[in-house]
Write a structure and sequence with these properties.
Elements lengths: L1 E9 L4 H19 L4 E10 L9 H11 L5 E4 L2 H4 L3 H13 L3 E4 L4 E2 L5 H32 L12 E4 L2 E4 L1 H15 L5 H10 L14 H9 L7 E3 L2 E2 L9 E2 L7 E3 L9 H19 L14 E3 L6 E5 L7 E5 H6 L9 E2 H14 L4 H11 L5 H15 L2 H7 E6 L4 E5 L6 E3 L15
Parallel strand pairs: 1-2, 1-3, 3-4, 12-16
Antiparallel strand pairs: 4-5, 6-7, 8-11, 9-10, 13-14, 14-15, 16-17, 17-18
Helix pairs in contact: 4-5, 7-8
Length: 441
């Protein structure tokens, strides 16, 4: 008895194609059963896979069975069902022939066991490969025309939107998160890492399929996504080679489609462009070796007493080029939106320095206790250590740990510390102001 298997494939999983697959199974089963000296091994079938795909589970199982000498002959409908790559087709048939397994392509009247089988197969495989290329080009052309008409391609995983029938509609719950991300980045001056950490701590679900935690990359994707201001850029990735189906970043290999005001925006265009400028500025700072604004000691902790927005850091145009903190709403919409005064970073540091000086800390006792824990230091090392520790007490790290937030008004600064119920008051020059709310100690 000749042990015979069959291989069939359909390229999509749609209903009519599934019916086609069942018809092929039935056809091969009946065809083999009619041969008196043939024994059916299995009808191997792949569903929803292209012939140019190398990841075909049933096809791999069939090759494995042939290698284990369980198959003598393979039937398939035609060369295009077996593979659409000439090189692969010949490689597989030669591999199977070395294992003593022949292939019969029923529709193409090719039997690899015959002397002219490989010659005829080469011609038919080349035709199948060319047909695959033409289909790929027709599909790309059709997609390009549809994109130009505004049809959105992709799956329903665009955070903030729902994709149905090629149209984008705003997802209200996710859109609120997107707006909050933009606000924290632009108005509060926070970085992507801090925003991601806060969203995770608040229990806000991240984009689907990405785990339980937000990441800096997820936040950055929201901030750079043109869809959030109503625009649409399609074909960000492409498949240069129709044979290997490998997607790569589109860097000019295929024409892209950009449509402005394509759908309802989640954030205003002015805000989107301001965020993009701020992202570019921070990136330039990182390349230059300077710190990101999201990492300043009081980032997100300076609050406008007039409009409630967060102050953001800005380098001043004055001669010393000093760092200033300015109301985010004023930065975005101008002085007409908020006339809160800017505050120099040096003034804020002076306020915190005065607060630390007033803390009931016996620094000398702290030094003695610390030095007793590391007795092997030389006298010079002990002196250096004490100098460094005294300086560390008046450092931005300590100030940031103590500070809850600072409210800025036209009259002065109100400083709130962690674990301290009563605030401290300073004028806009950083000089402490007496207050009936302040108690001794």
């Amino acid at each position: 008895m000749l042990r015979v298997a069959a291989y069939c494939r359909v390229s999509t999983s749609q209903e009519d194609q599934r019916n086609s697959l069942e018809n092929q199974r039935r056809y091969f089963s009946e065809y083999i059963s009619r041969q008196p000296d043939w024994e059916l091994v299995e009808v191997y079938a792949d569903e929803g896979l292209s012939g140019t795909s190398s990841d075909r589970p049933a096809f791999r199982r069939m090759l494995a069975a042939a290698a284990e000498e369980k198959i003598d002959l393979i039937l398939t409908k035609e060369v295009s069902r077996f593979a659409r790559n000439t090189v692969d087709t010949l490689a597989y048939t030669r591999l199977l022939r070395r294992q003593g397994v022949g292939i019969v392509f029923i529709g193409d009247h090719i039997d690899t066991r015959q002397n002219d089988g490989e010659f005829r197969l080469t011609i038919m495989a080349s035709v199948a490969q060319e047909e695959s290329r033409k289909i790929s080009e027709r599909v790309k052309w059709g997609q390009q025309r549809s994109m130009e008409r505004g049809v959105v391609f992709g799956c329903d995983n665009i955070y903030g939107f729902s994709l149905r029938g090629g149209e984008l509609t705003v997802n209200p719950e996710q859109a609120a998160v997107v707006r909050e991300v933009y606000r924290r980045f632009l108005m509060d001056g926070k970085g992507t890492y801090i925003i991601a950490r806060e969203l995770t701590a608040e229990g806000i679900p991240p984009p689907s399929g990405k785990g339980k935690s937000w990441s800096s990359t997820m936040v950055l994707r929201l901030l750079r996504g043109e869809k959030y201001c109503g625009d649409l850029l399609q074909r960000k990735s492409c498949t240069p080679d129709f044979l290997d189906h490998r997607k790569v970043k589109n860097e000019g290999q295929s024409p892209q489609v950009y449509l402005q005001d394509h759908h309802e925006a989640i954030v205003p265009r002015s805000m989107f462009e301001a965020v993009r400028r701020e992202l570019d500025r921070r990136q330039a700072n990182r390349k230059a070796g300077s710190r990101s604004s999201a990492r300043y000691w009081c980032s997100g902790k300076v609050v406008c007493g007039r409009c409630g927005s967060r102050f953001v850091p800005r380098r001043g145009a004055q001669a010393d080029g000093g760092l200033r903190w300015v109301c985010g709403k004023r930065v975005q919409h101008g002085v007409a939106a908020c006339a809160a005064p800017a505050v120099g970073n040096r003034i804020l540091l002076n306020c915190m320095k005065q607060i630390v000086q007033d803390l009931p800390i016996d620094m000398e006792m702290v030094l003695r206790q610390t030095l007793r824990a590391i007795p092997d230091l030389t006298r010079t090392e002990r002196q250096q250590f004490c100098t460094i520790l005294r300086k560390k007490l008046y450092s931005e790290t300590v100030y940031s740990a103590l500070l809850d937030h600072i409210t800025v008004t036209g009259e002065g600064l109100t400083v709130y510390l962690h674990g301290v119920s009563e605030p401290l008051y300073f004028d806009l020059l950083g000089r402490e102001k007496p207050s009936v709310q302040r108690t001794d100690g």
